[in-house]
Amino acid sequence: MVSFRRLTSLPVLIGALVLVTYLAAAPLREFDRSLHGFWSDELTPRWTDFLDQVPNAVAGQAVCLPVLLLVAFTLAWKHRTWRPVLIAGATEAGFYGVVGGLKLVLARTSPKADDVSGRFFNGGAEEHGWYGMTYPSGHAAEAILIYGAAAYLLVVYSRPDSRLRRRLGWAMTLITINAVAVAYYLGYHWPSDLIGGMLTGAVVLRVIIDVDQWLARRRARAAWQRLERTREAAPVAPRPAPTPVGAASPAAAPAPVPPRIPAGHGHREHDREPELVP
Question: How far apart are CA 134 and CA 77, in angstroms?
């Protein structure tokens, strides 16, 4: 069975993104148009503003970026390292550089633009504004990329148990489903925009995680090498020669015995006069 790690590897994600982009450029364009609709305006017009301002905003920069920064700076202060902040900066740079760059280059018109053909290179920010660069979906990419980076930091630094890991996975799934479903229900994107957005966010997130883990392994290897060099350079104390098996151990030198003092020695006897012999 193919593992989740292999399914989300960088070559697989890039291949899927290229395939979806190719299909959205021509073969799926009519399919996109047949599935699209302004469902909220048709079915629940009174809820359109609420859906746009609350559920749709969860995957927007106004909400997801503060969440990522809060997680990054909290972990950086707790563990006394700038690594979480650097990962957050790389995540935001990747969003604007890759997702924003694809939006500008591909220039696909939104269903709300004057040109509803959905063709690539037919829109543009100058002519249609935000409605001229709809592929890939920014909200779908942010749901995967921004919240995924926050979850990755929590897993690396907090080292949660399997139960909390599952909860993080479910939270990521619900946020992504919310972003895709609400954007589709409001009619802001073609269906292929949303799929392309999720894949683009996953590609950028995979690059960030792989690079961070490679740097961590490199730092660990360099630290181990420094430790080995320190051990080799340290002077080694001479070891005593081993005693042969069965050899008698050298006897300790006998302690000096103090001389015996005869009884009465040192006591002066009373001098007596000699007796007179007749």
Answer: 38
